[in-house]
Design a protein that fits this description.
Elements (H helix, E strand, L loop, with lengths): L12 E3 L7 H8 L5 E3 L21 H5 L9 E5 L9 H8 L4 E6 L2 H15 L8 H6 L1 H8 L14 H4 L2 H12 L4 E5 H6 L1 H11 L17 E3 L2 H8 L5 H6 L4 H9 E3 L7 H22 L5 H4 L1
Parallel strand pairs: 1-3, 1-4, 2-3, 4-5
Antiparallel strand pairs: 6-7
Helix pairs in contact: 8-14
Length: about 300
């Protein structure tokens, strides 16, 4: 590694999540701006950054090398796990003390339900098809994970309720970076009025807010036709994913054949009502933190 790191422009904003909350769409939209650079992992095998639950980077210096040659005013990195990861905020602060933070918060019930579908149908690590039953085993899963960081018996995203502990997650970033350096976006508002939200974010990042950005709708829900085949692709069994990457258009063809978009059925009303009751206290706490009434998350 080249030890001359002073010439590299250090990332100065981080898009920390939340998962299944429109983060990929917003990243693609912001990346259109000529003054903004977003880091993309060069390999599907490499995690998005070194500050979350796991990373293939040996140290911060190796990660910093990924930004050599970048000239844009705002240099950003996005990872949906940084918000839920207990130590990410502190590590990012040490790496980039003056960084700005962006996050999107969606109704936590919808996040959990969507995340369960993702782990079941896309990542193929979840084997309990019923969402309510998957929630029931969370305490057992958490206990089996223990205090291990890596490897965990269960993927952190399979602890659905733990994933959406919003007040403590937001509080960590407020404490480390200061509220003025943290932009909290409510998913519902982003979807209803993208243009206004995007202008507000560009202003927050101190770049030209008049630049016209094309709206993006990325990372739609998908469901496999054959779980065995899809699992082999996702885990790169026998190197199949590497082979597909070298065939132009193969990803699009594969999704059409075995991984089509699908709209999941509405969450069972009784389970939603139970989760609304469970989440009420945390949602009210978050409302006070953000000075924004989010009670409709547990009323509707």
């Amino acid at each position: 590694m080249n030890n001359n790191l002073e010439s590299i422009k250090r990332p100065n904003f981080f898009f920390v999540g939340h998962t299944r909350s429109g983060t990929t769409s917003l990243k693609e939209e912001l990346n259109q701006h000529p003054e903004i650079f977003f880091y993309y992992a060069k390999s599907w095998q490499k995690p998005n950054g070194p500050f979350g639950f796991e990373s293939s980077f040996k140290n911060d210096e190796e990660f910093l090398e990924e930004f050599r040659g970048v000239k844009e005013k705002r240099v950003g990195q996005k990872c949906g796990d940084y918000l839920s990861c207990p130590w990410a905020a502190e590590r990012i602060k040490k790496f980039s003390p003056n960084a700005k933070i962006i996050m999107i918060l969606r109704n936590p019930i919808d996040v959990m339900y969507s995340l369960h579908a993702t782990m079941l149908y896309r990542e193929t690590v979840e084997d309990i098809e019923d969402f309510g039953e998957a929630l029931k085993v969370e305490k057992v899963r958490k206990k089996k994970n223990g205090h291990k960081v890596i490897p965990m018996k269960y993927h952190p995203h399979m602890l659905y309720r733990e994933t959406v502990r919003y007040p403590q997650q937001v509080k960590r970033y407020f404490e480390h970076f200061g509220e003025k350096n943290v932009k909290v976006i409510i998913f519902d508002e982003y979807i209803k009025n993208k243009s206004a939200i995007l202008r507000d974010i560009l202003n927050f990042l101190d770049v030209n807010e008049d630049f016209e950005i094309k709206h993006v709708n990325a990372n739609a829900g998908r469901k496999y036709r054959n779980r065995t085949i899809h699992s082999a692709v996702m885990t790169n069994k026998f190197g199949v994913r590497g082979v597909l990457r070298n065939i132009p258009g193969s990803a699009k063809i594969y999704r059409k054949i075995n991984n089509n978009e699908f709209k999941r059925k509405t969450l069972e009303p009784s389970l939603r009502k139970s989760l609304q009751y469970d989440l009420k206290k945390e949602i009210d706490e978050l409302s006070l933190m953000l000075k924004k009434d989010l009670s409709y998350w547990y009323k509707n």
